[in-house]
Amino acid sequence: MEACKRRRLRKDAEINRERIMTAARGAFRERGLDVPLEEIARRAEVNIATLYRRFPDREALIEAILADHMADFVEAAEAAELADDPWEAFAGLVEHVCGMQAADRGVTEALTTCFPTAALEAPRARAMAAVDRVIERARRAGTLRADFTGQDLMLIMMANAGVLGSTRCTAPQAWRRLIGLILDACRADRVGPPLPPAPSTKDLNAAMSSARPQR
Asked: Of 104, 95, 86, whose CA–CA distance to 141 is shortest?
C-alpha cells in the first residue's frame, strides 16, 4: 500500500511538472520571460506552492523551458559551418536566429540576455564560438565585410528584439525587412566608410545581464 502511494505521488508530481512547463512555454512565448509566476501557475491549474516545489525560482523554470531553444541555436550555428557557400551560411544563420526570435517572445529575450546558469550560458558560448567561425569563413571568402564581428550579430539580435517588441502584433513580418536591409549592408561589395568600433564583449555582456528577468 505504501509503495503504491509513493508511485502515485511521483506520478502526480510528474504530471504537475509537465503541466507547469506546458503553461510556461505558452506564457513565455506570448508574454516574455518576466510573466508573473502566479500567471503560469494559474494556466497550469496548480497553486503557486506546487510550482515552487517543482521549480525553486524563475531562473530554474526559464532554464528548463529554454534548454531546447539554446540547443537549436547551437545546432544551427554548427550546421552553418558545414554549408558549402560561406555567404549563404552566414546569411542563413542570421535569418534563422532572428526567425527564432520572431516565433517566440521568450526566445527573443533569451538570446539577448545573460543568465547565471551554465545550462544556458554553456550552449550560448558554444553557439557563439561556431558563429565566430562562420563569420571568419565568410570574411576570408571576401563576401562578408571585413570589419563584421560576433558582437555585431548580438547587436543585430538586439535590434531585431526592439523591432519585434514594437511590431509583433501590428506588422509581424517587419523583422524580415530589417534583416534584409542589414544583410545587404553586411556584404563586402556594399562597404562604405569604416564603421565605428564594435562594443566590447564585456560591455555587451553587462547590457545582457541587466536585461535578465527578475525573480
From this structure: 86
